[in-house]
Amino acid sequence: MDINTLVKITSRAWSLNILALMDAGVPGRQAPLLSASNASRTAFTASLDHLTQLKLLERNPGHGHPLRPEYRLTLKGIEVAKIARRIVEADPDCADSDIIRKSWTVPVLAVTGKPQYFTEIKSKLFPITDRALSQSLFQLHGRDWLLRDVDSTKRPLRPTYQVSSVGVRINRAINFGR
Predict the structure, then answer these.
(1) pTM, full prediction
(2) What confidence tens digit (pLDDT) does each residue in 99-148 have?
(3) What keywords appear on the UniProt entry (predicted)?
(4) Which residues of 113-145 are buried (b: 16+ CB within 10 A; e: fewer)?
(5) Cβ atoms within 10 Å, residue 55
(6) What is the DSSP pairing of strand 68-73 with strand 146-150?
(7) Confidence category of residue 29, pLDDT binned at 50, 70, 90
């Protein structure tokens, strides 16, 4: 999956979780998906609409009530849902975690398979802001999902960032088959 698609998908908190649940066989009706995801109704609905706009989900014609439609994965959605499921299953404890639902967590982990400088990460994740990237790096480093290494022999000091522990598993799940 290209990084731009990943950034678009993760811009809504529950999108990855919804795709992973549908890939795991949870019916495409709102009630079972909402129950399985533990999301608020508002955030869940926004994520469903977002996935529909990205053409990863579509309404299942002839099924569901007009006010409670049933959804199914599109062909592109099937491929993305497999990746989403691998990401969520990379660490069962992180599936319900707030950090995995943050907009930039998964994209940052996707591009830091090799040591990267802040500016390199930022250029790969356009349109991320300095503040959003700094916060993401800080939170991921705090969870030990990223290693921060500072080479004290170089001036000015420039830290590099690389995935570790759970971050490695999520990075592999995203970049599987590349």
Answers:
(1) 0.88
(2) 888 889 999 999 999 999 999 999 999 889 999 999 999 999 999 999 99
(3) DNA-binding, Transcription, Transcription regulation
(4) beebeeeebbebbeebeeebbeebbebbbebeb
(5) 11
(6) unpaired
(7) confident
CATH at 152: 1.10.10.10
**What pLDDT, on the 0 to 100 scale, is given for residue 154?**
81
3-state secondary structure 36-55: HHCCCHHHHHHHHHHHHHCC
- Sign for the CA dihedral angle at 137, 140, 143, 147 comes to negative
CA distance 173 to 146: 16
119 and 169 within one domain: yes
For the chain, the domain total comes to: 2
Structural domain containing residue 19: 1-89
Check if the beta carbon of residue 33 is closer than 8 Å to that of residue 27: yes
Rounded to 5°, the CA angle 115-116-118 comes to: 145
What's the rounded Cα separation, in Å, for the pair 21 and 120? 33
Q: Which two tokens stand for residue 21?
A: 């649940």
Domain boundary among the residues 71, 89, 107 is at 89
53-101 confidence digits (pLDDT tens): 999 999 887 776 666 778 999 999 999 999 999 998 887 676 556 888 8
Neighbours of 158 (CB within 10 A): 11
